[in-house]
Structures are given as structure tokens and as C-alpha cells.
Amino acid sequence: MISRVLTADLARHVGAQVRIAGWLHRKRQLKSMTFLVIRDRSGLAQVVLASPAEIGAASDLPEETVVAVTGTVAASDQAPGGAEIIHPVITQLSGAAQPPPFDLYRPTVTAALPTILDHAPASLRHPLLRAPFEISAAAIAGFRATLDGLGFIEVSTPKIVESATESGANVFGIDFFGRTAYLAQSPQFFKQALVGVFERVYETGPVFRAEPHDTARHLAEYTSLDAEFGFIEDHHDVMAVLREVTAGMVSAVAERSGAAVELLGIKLPEVPAQIPEIHITDAQELLARHTDEDPRGEPDLAPAHERWLSDWAVREHGSEFLYVTGYPMAKRPFYTHPEPGRPAYSNSFDLLFRGLEIVTGGQRLHRHCDYLAALAERGEDPGPYASYLAVFAAGMPPHGGFAMGLERWTARLTGADNVRRVTLFPRDLHRLSP
Amino acid sequence: MISRVLTADLARHVGAQVRIAGWLHRKRQLKSMTFLVIRDRSGLAQVVLASPAEIGAASDLPEETVVAVTGTVAASDQAPGGAEIIHPVITQLSGAAQPPPFDLYRPTVTAALPTILDHAPASLRHPLLRAPFEISAAAIAGFRATLDGLGFIEVSTPKIVESATESGANVFGIDFFGRTAYLAQSPQFFKQALVGVFERVYETGPVFRAEPHDTARHLAEYTSLDAEFGFIEDHHDVMAVLREVTAGMVSAVAERSGAAVELLGIKLPEVPAQIPEIHITDAQELLARHTDEDPRGEPDLAPAHERWLSDWAVREHGSEFLYVTGYPMAKRPFYTHPEPGRPAYSNSFDLLFRGLEIVTGGQRLHRHCDYLAALAERGEDPGPYASYLAVFAAGMPPHGGFAMGLERWTARLTGADNVRRVTLFPRDLHRLSP
Question: How many Cα atoms are found within 13 Å in the side-chain-facing hemisphere of B354?
Fold first, then answer.
């Protein structure tokens, strides 16, 4: 059997006998001819059935059936890629496919989101619905490559954890050999502990939030891109690394998923050498001065404020990225490092991109006594934190890090209106399958 | 402040004023001098305290305290790396560290495994205990790079799943917004579905097994390296890709974690261009002929048999890797493709490496009707498999794949006698922290 040629390479084989294989993307039956479009991972190819025998051989094949086609490559101006297959012999590789939830060959997708998600294994075959995942795979590769280059090491930390203590977010309980354990909301405690071992660590993996919110940006399970490192001065060192990571991710998307970027018609952002930053108090002053609202003194930014500030950063600094720094300690986790001289505020930041917070990070406390004081101040019993606190008793450098939600990043990059569009099989309050 | 120099680069700065930072690895107080050894992510550096003032400044610092040291670099034959720091000024960056569970500066580790694991954040700082994780990070990078080069795409699939149906292994139940869900034992169903979308996919992530076994090779949570791809002839195509992946992982370990390999004094395996293979029936014949046991007709290999066969492959083929193929269908999951002409056996394989099964893989069924028949034959209700079965009704190519346990791989590579030694924070029947 001759070896398979990808459809994207067809034009390089004009005149030759080849074999392609893929899904029957489209069948168009004209009066005396039938055109098949075959889809494989590289693209589309047209197959021309001219003789009654050829046409008859394909008449029973529904779209989405998997086939191999052996035939001669002919140059053609009308065909995708400038070449098509003539005189084909078709071999059916799958059973006759059942109809997909909507026509996968149409250039646009009009199906509603629930329909798309309910039938994800078929829906995602649509080139427009598949493309975001090529971008997200490229982005994660860029994340890792950038941090590898900066001396970070990849780690794998447990998703099953002992306590439900890390943040205010809701946790999922699990029955762990007869006792209750929890699904990790983040690798925060572990990545900090590992700064004590490796200095610089990152992890890419699932995190779990029992989010009762049914919004376009919350998921019960998502992919968190986490980094943490030691020997920093303050959060600005973390922001500098994140700037490199962000630039590396955008470059990787351009280099590794250019076809998907082109197909979706999206414009990749420029990452400025220095991402502009604004302290939350200054941001609130701006909002008070230029909008109808006065958020001064509030502990956090509302989504509408984030959008306004993103627009402001584009106007004022020509940047689609903006760091908002200094969030009030009251709204940050207990391990956050306060702002020297202004202890109601923190050495923390959010990175806004196209109107949405996609990264949270900052400097952490690193002295054991500071942790005890922080828990005491919040009236929390240090007991459940015993194994975490032991890390800081063992000698830890000043450190910090950040966490990026991969789905939010990809959604912003692709213009998706809902993170579920860039999640293969989303999990939320109402969705546990497929 | 002058910028930090890594200890590994110290010798390049002889004569200059530098600043290093790290953990106080060792303090040796002689009659008129004190030597400090500072450990950072790159290695060790010696600091010489000669004046009473210098000696006094360090007298209160326990080992593992984090410090910055500014001083002059002097060439020294006695110091690690051929250079040391003299006339130091020491700044303490952490609180005074509490004593580690055992001396981290000793060249060997005699602490028992439970001690090591109970105090992992401190124990893992020992260079010998840290090194396996540098190797495992390199291996996972090699896995991804090889598959990227072969046109695979990385995916992230849910760890929270609807049914506990995938295999015979025990599952963890979770309370998912008031209903019962489960932690995924593997991404098997999802990666197959995604072959229908991307043709070639891989995932590196946690999987969960409620293993009641308390052995040196079972964990409740481990990192699975999964790949799956379409348009194969049979399981030999999968074995050929796995051969490339294995070779890529060994190369990456050599290139990216050479220092760890050297420190541990391990010998990396050669991956033969063609990994030898033996059908399970032939393997059982061999065992019957050459050992005291007669495993013919048994559905699986015992661990002792795997060790014998591994030794046999070294003797007979000069290979530390061996494919055992054709495992009886009775011991394989229902989605396994049978061996054409011998349907009691399967188009499946295990990869043995240094006496242990580290990869399982094979060809899967790909026709909807074959799945229905396979479930019926096992007396299983297709109901709980509805969303999985829908994948095959939608048109799927012949496909297959494999799953490698990262911890088992690293254990074999480093000679660890227990997978817990190559797992940062293991989870098992008895262990849920740190």
C-alpha cells in the first residue's frame, strides 16, 4: 500500500498516484459528477468522481464517514490548495457516520453554544471550532519554553489535597479511602514549597473550583499556568518575568499556530517591552474622574472597570496589556506580601488583557513569623496549615509568582465570548458530560 | 545593589565583587575560620569567614537559613567549582531556619522513606533527592517535543467525569454540585474522541486510581503521558511512534538534565532503532521452558515474569526495552482491538523497561457496531457509555495509542526502589500530606 499523503501536501504530487485519508467533509452531487471534500488534520482536498462507477461507490457514504482515497493528483484552480484527486478508488474506514449536530462543512457556525457543547466530539471537528485549541496548545508550549529558558523547572503537584484552606473559593470534596479530601483550587502551597527546593518552578495543569456562578468566564475545572520563583525584590520582578512569558506565548502562537490565527482572522497583540502599570488607587481615581462611578476605596475592580482600564491603556499607552497593582490586602489571600509603608495595600497585581483579568500574581510572605501574624490577624487557626507553615520555618527566600487561566487567555486572544468555546469538554454547575 | 551571580558561574568572576544568594547548606567552624557552603539552584559555593567580625556575623545562622553574600571571588583549589568568596558581607533573607529532618549537606541520604516524605519540602532540597525531578522534567519535555515533531497536538481533558466506567480500576467519587461524579482514571475516552478532531493528540496530566494496594509501584495519583492517533494499520504503528517518543525522552534527559544524571551516577539506556517484541504466548513458552514456572494460558504476566523477560531481552537482543504484544482480550479493556484471526488475543502491547511495565498501549476498536458487540459480550449495559459511543457513531478512523506512567519511567531510569521517591508529594492509601 502506498503511504498516506496529507491533503496540505497534495499540490506537491501533481501527476502522481497518491493515497489520502480523512473524513468526508462534504459531498456535492451535480448532474454528471460528484465532488468530495476530504478533511484531514492538515486541511481539505477535493476528489472528483466522474464515471458512474466512481459516483456509485460514494453514493452511500454520509458526510463524516472516514475514508481513504487513492487516485491521481491533478492541478486545479478550483480546488483548495490548487490540486485535486481524479480517478479515485475509495475505501471506507469507518462505519457510515451518523449526521453531525450541524453541517460541519459550512463556512460559519450558527449552532447555539449548548448544541456545540453537547456534541463536542463532532462539533469540534468544524475548522472554526477546532482552531482555538491549536492556539491554546501553542500558547502553553510558549509558556513552558519561555520559563525553561529562564531556568525554571516543571513540576507536578497533587490535585488531591488534605485541607480546604487555600482561598475563599469553594472546593470539591472527595472520598479518599474513607476520609474527606479536596480537589486543589491551585498549586499555590506546593509551588511555594518547591521554591525552597528548585528556586524556580512552573506547572501547567487542572485546577478545580466549585464555582456556583454560571457566567461566561467561570469553569469548575480549568487549566492553570502557574509559576513561582525565589530571590525577588518585590512583585515587579514577577511582573518582569510574566512580561517575558506573555511575549513568549504570543510568539509561539504566531509560529506554531499561524494557520489557526489566519483562519480565525484574529490580530495577535504586541507585548510592549514594558507593560504599563497602574496602582489600584490611581486606577480608581481615574475611574472616578472619567466615568459615572466612584469606586475609590473599594477593595476590587468590577468587570466593567477592568474593561474601561483596558481601553484606557490602549488609548494612553498603546498597550493591550495593563498591570493593575497594589490591590487591598483585604481582598487578597493571607499569604500576600503587604506594600511596604502602606500595609493596607499589597505587592500584588492583576494582568488585564483586552478587558479581562487573565493573570493574578504578586509577592508572597516568606517568613514563618509573618505567616503566623497574618493568620492571627484574620482570626484563623494555624492548625490546618501546619504542613504549609513548616515550609516557611525551613528557610524560604523572598518569592512570588503568578497564575494564568489558559482558557481566559485563549478566549481573549480568539475573541471568544465564553470560556466554554475554548474548553474542549467544559465542566460547570450544569455540565458534566460529554 | 549588584545583581546576583549563580554559584555555578562563580569561577568566571575571579577578582570581582559579586553577590550570591541561597541556602546555608553547611557551616564548618574551625579554630580561627568558618567556612560556609551556600546552595542555590545551580550548585554550591564556599564562603570563607576569616575575621572575628565576619565569623561573628554568621555565628547565629542555622543551616538552611536563606542568605545573600556579597564578597570578592578568589580562585581556590579546595572550593567547589574552583572559586570561593572571601571578605563576605552576609545578609539574612529568611528567618533562622529550623533544623531539617536530616543533614542535607551529607553526601548520602540514610533517612527512611517515611521521614523523607513526611518532610518533603525540606528533604527534597538534598541534591540527591532533588535530582530525579530534574530528570523527570526533562523526560516530559522530551515526550512533548517528540510528539510535536510528529504532528500531534497537546490537549487538556477533564479530570472530573460522569461515569466510573472506563476500566476495572477503583475510582474516587466526588461531590459535584450535589451529584456524584468521579476522578478520571485516564484520559482514554477523551483522547479517543479527540482523534476524531485532531487525528493526533497527547496529554500530560494527573490521573487518579483508588488503589487499595500498598506497593512500591502504585500511587493514588500519578502523571500519565498519553498519546492517541488515527489512521494506523495496527498496534505496530503505535509501537513505532512510542519508540520515537522513548528515544526522544532519553535524549532530552541527557541534554536537559545531564548534571542530575551525573550526580546520580546513572547509565541512560540505548533505545534500539527497533525495540524487540515478543507475543505473550511466545513469552509464556520461553518462561515455561527456562524457569520453574509454567505461565502458559495465563491472561497476564506476573511481575517476576516481566523481570525475567527484561533480562532475556538484554541477553538475547541487547535491549533494555521489550515489547510484549498480544495480551489476551480477557485482561484488556473492552475497547481493545482483537488480533485478526486469533480473537482471544489482542492488538495490544506493554513496554517493559528494566523489569517493569512502564507503558500500556494498543489498537482500539473504531466502529460503533464493534463497541456495541464488545459491551454485549461482556454483559455490560451500553447506557452509561452513551457519550463515549456517540464518538464512534460520528465516524472514527482506525486508531490506537498508549499511556506511560511518568513516575514509573523515572523510577526505572534512576534506579529508585519505590515510585514515591520520584513523586514530589505522593498520594496513597496512607498518605494525603504534605
Answer: 15
Chain A residues lying within 8 Å of B194, measured CB to CB: 121, 124, 424
Q: Which of B94, B98, B151 sits opposite A367 (nearest CB)?
A: B94
Lowest-confidence pick of A4-8, A216-220, B232-236: A216-220
Interchain pair A66, B397: CB under 8 A: yes
pLDDT, position B166 = 63
Equal CATH topology for B7-92 and B127-422: no
Model-level ipTM above the cut of 0.85: yes
Residue A194 has pLDDT above 90, yes or no: yes
Q: What is the pLDDT of residue A348?
A: 98
Question: Over 80: is that where the pLDDT of A343 sits?
Answer: yes
Asked if B112 reaches chain A (Cβ–Cβ under 8 Å), the answer is no
Sign of the CA dihedral running B247, B251, B254, B257: negative
Ranges of chain B with pLDDT below 50: none
Rg (CA), chain A: 26
Confidence of residue A207 (pLDDT cuts 50, 70, 90): very high
In the CATH scheme, what is the code of domain A7-92? Answer: 2.40.50.140
Least confident of A221-235, A375-389, B338-352: A375-389
A-chain residues within 8 Å CB-CB of B395?
23-24, 64-66, 94-95, 97-98
pLDDT at residue B213 in the model: 82
With the C-alpha atoms ordered A390, B137, B44, B421, is the resulting torsion angle positive or negative? positive
Q: Within an 8 Å CB–CB cutoff, is residue A318 touching chain B?
A: no
Residue of A98, A174, A385, A392 best to disrupt the B interface, most CBs of B under 10 A? A174
Domain A127-422 falls under CATH 3.30.930.10 = yes
Closest by Cα among A152, A193, A403 to B134: A152
Closest chain B residue by Cα to residue A174: B174
Q: How far apart are CA B395 and CA B382, in angstroms?
A: 18
Confidence band (pLDDT; 50, 70, 90) for A80? confident
How confident is the model over B354-375, as pLDDT tens digits? 999 999 999 999 999 999 999 9
Cross-chain residue pair B197–A98, CB shorter than 8 Å: no
Is the model's pLDDT at A2 over the cut of 90?
no
Chain A residues whose beta carbon lies within 8 Å of the beta carbon of residue B124: 194, 197
Domains in chain B: boundaries: 7-92, 127-422
Which has the closest alpha carbon to A393: B21, B26, B119? Answer: B119
Chosen for mutation from A66, A182, A188 (greatest number of chain B CBs closer than 10 Å) is A66
- A378 in contact with chain B, both atoms CB, cutoff 8 A: no
